[in-house]
Amino acid sequence: MDFSRLAITEIRRDPTRTRIAVVVTAIATIIIIFLRILPEGYGAEMARPERTISQGDIIIFPANSPLSSSDASTLVWHAWRGSDWQSHIDQYFPDIESTGYLTEKTCLGWRAMIPQEILDSIQDIPNVKNVHVYRSLPCLIVTKEGQFPAVLRGFEQGPEFPLDAYITDGTHFSETATQHKEALVPLAADNFPYLRIGDTFQIVLPEPTLAEFISASGIGALNMGINWKNVAQYSLSVQGGYKIQTGEEIDYETWNQIESPEPPTIPIFWNRPEVLIPMDLFENIMREIDSNVDDHYLVEFGTMFPSYQITVTVDTVAEVKKTTSLIRNALGSDYGVYTIPEVIYTVSSKGHVVMPPDLHKLFSVLLIVFSSIVVAGNIYIITVQQRRKIGLFRVVGATSKDIRQYVLTMCGYISIVGTCSGAIFGDLIYLVSLLGSDIPIKSWFIQVLTDFGIITGLSLALSLGIGFAVAYWASKLPCSEVLRRE
Fold first, then answer.
1. 58, 340 Cβ separation under 8 angstroms
2. Fewer CB within 10 Å: N-end or C-end of the chain?
3. CA–CA distance, 140 with 205 (Å, rounded to integer)
4. What are the Cα distances from residue 106, in Å, to 139, 331, 337, 389?
5. Helix pair 15-37, 441-475: axis angle to 10 deg
6. How far apart are the C-alpha atoms of 403 and 391, rounded to whole Å?
7. C-alpha–C-alpha distance, residues 367 and 361, integer Å
8. Residue 94 CB: number of other CB atoms within 10 A?
9. Could you tell me if 481 and 384 are in contact, meaning their C-beta atoms sit under 8 angstroms apart?
């Protein structure tokens, strides 16, 4: 007698209980796949304006470390002692100047980073494509209308995030930009002077200084300062103007004056008075005015001169969260490492992000265990209702092994049908999410097959493991069950 085929036939005769167990298993599988989708990363176009102006997918600061909700380290509030010209941190963490940031007690705090040290630490991390170093100095824009504070930034456009789409007036740097001292000016920054294409304007730059200091943990670090007593003046030519729209907000004032169910909106722009010049030109200027900076930092300017912001571009944005986690682990708690969409959409009002640990594996196992218990529970009820039939099997010569095979086949059948149904449905939705992602179809297909194998194998193993207790109990039922039921 084929007890496996007999078990499948019996399962199909009790469709109500079977459907419940199959649906529960399928739902658990779908949730596991959805949990996989969420940590994969972001859509390829998400936060593209901010990623363009910061020139990266991942941003690294020398403080403001992301904290885990399971972190047991001693945490203290550090006052932020930086300046707005040093980095974009005040754009992403607008409250940091007033609230400071929460980090471990032994951290160095806000200080200048040596780019080469960061490069050495992350060079072996997969999915890292390019590294961009933020170079800037405060300056004064001098026009006929007066002097206006601004930030002079050396800009090296990467192929991943071209600025051209955001240049609304004029053009991007020409091939002779360094020679002719071309500049791109912000058209949406508050209190920035009106400059037309072709205008020549003056900038006044302070002398940069580097100072060593000893942190609370006894480790030496660098701070980059400025000296306005010694200044240099340069003439720049306006090559173009840029506007970077980062969002929209409801225009309540206009909405109150019109009758419309749909509220009108007004654009929100990147509001930072940042004058962009070619990186080569910026380096030349720094070499001319850096009279008090050790030549050690100027010889290899791109990798040795300190910076307060470093950005990383990745090959696949869909895997950017995993890459960010690897960079965090490589650099340690003395650095703040974030995906740019993360700091835009999930930053708390206290100037730090509380990052829970990755619970995908834990949640997946718990869901599979739950569905396996439901499967085994339904099989137990079916088996209890079939005690007379099992007794009859005994009468016709079935062994304990045959009974266990009968029960375990029912467990395995429901588990496989439920898992496969949930996997197919979940992966179809996963395929839709692929359309807004830059993950290669080959990588997606490999991920789907891997997840399917792991989920199906684990679900089947747990269902059979838990169901074995039911099978063992059923295998001990005596032949007298036939008489007891009559």
1. yes
2. C
3. 7
4. 34, 15, 18, 70
5. 140
6. 10
7. 10
8. 13
9. no
**DSSP assignments along 204-257, one per residue:** EEEEEEEEEEE-TTS-EEEEEEEEEEEEEEEEEEEEEEE--EEEEEE-HHHHTT
Do the bridges between strand 167-170 and strand 220-242 make them parallel or antiparallel, or are there none, so unpaired? Answer: antiparallel
Query: Is residue 427 within 8 Å of residue 448, measured between CB atoms?
Result: yes
Cβ atoms 91, 153 nearer than 8 A: no
Confirm if 237 and 184 have CB atoms less than 8 A apart.
no
Predicted TM-score of the model (pTM): 0.74
> Could you tell me if residue 191 is left (phi over 0), alpha (psi between -120 and 50 degrees) or otherwise beta?
left
β-bridge pairing 354-355 and 67-68: parallel
Half-sphere exposure of 460 (CA within 13 A, CB side): 13
Q: Which value, in Å, is the radius of gyration of the alpha carbons in the chain?
A: 32
CA–CA distance, 359 with 362 (Å, rounded to integer): 5
CB 375 within 8 A of CB 465: no
8 A C-beta contact, residue 317 and residue 43: yes
Pick from 352, 403, 351: which is nearest to 379 by CA? 403
- Predicted pLDDT of residue 287: 87
Residue type, 329: N
Q: Take residue 86 and report the two structure tokens written for it.
A: 């040093």
User: From CA 4, how far away is CA 365, in angstroms rounded?
Assistant: 28
How far apart CA 39 and CA 317 sit, in angstroms, is 11
Q: What is the pLDDT of residues 178-219, one digit of tens each?
A: 999 999 999 999 889 989 999 999 999 999 888 887 766 667
Which residues are bridge partners to 337 per DSSP? 60
Question: How would you classify the pairing of strands 182-186 and 220-242?
Answer: parallel
DSSP states of 264-292: PEEEEE----EEEEEHHHHHHHHHHH-TT
SS3 159: coil
Please work out, in degrees rounded to the nearest 5, the angle formed at the alpha carbon of residue 85 by the alpha carbons of 83 and 91. 90
Q: Which residues does 224 contact at the CB level (< 8 Å), separation at least 6?
A: 86, 112, 208, 209, 210, 306, 308
Helix (H) or strand (E) holding 335: none
In degrees, to the nearest 5, what angle opens at C-alpha 312 toward C-alphas 342 and 203?
100
Q: Which H helix or E strand runs over 311?
A: strand 310-314
How many Å apart are CA 242 and CA 362, to the nearest integer? 47
| Cβ–Cβ < 8 Å for 376, 29 | no
Residues in the chain predicted with pLDDT less than 50, given as ranges, are: 348-355, 357, 485-486
